[in-house]
Design goal:
alpha/beta; 171 residues; 29% helix; globular; two-stranded antiparallel sheet; five-stranded mixed beta sheet
Amino acid sequence: CLSMYSKSNMYYFNKDLYASVSSSEDPYQLVRDGKWTVDKMMEITKKYYRDLNSSGSSDPEDQFGIAGTTKVHFQNLLSGAGIKLVDIDDETGNPYFALPGNTYAIDVIIKLVNEHKNNSAYLNNNKDANGGIINTEFNAGRVLLLASTIWNYDNYRDLDFSVGVLPAPKY
């Protein structure tokens, strides 16, 4: 992407919500130690789902471990797995679509989709075909991790809770 700001993805992190569920693991230390992985992220975020309105099913009024549009959240996860959707041909120097024949990439995609299927801890906040990124549930303090971009930082800097930033987890 030519826009470094709109495609510099990360996870905004609600530090206060994290402190509300007992956990001895410091997420920043997990990153420093190379232990911030998809499996660890999913393990942690599943602890945060709460059916706040007692509807019996996951809906935007609940509390979530992770939220984000599919295009940002899954792009983060694929990047953390080292998957390139487009690469440069060594011989020609031209870009090419890198997924066909890449069995590692397909295996990772299948695992990630299966991990998110029927996972009430994940809120897919695609509001329209373009996937609205600003997350009102995060702003309300009901989401632990939000997949977003540096471009949206102004939307999260004056909230009533402490916000941190985490990178995409490793696969």
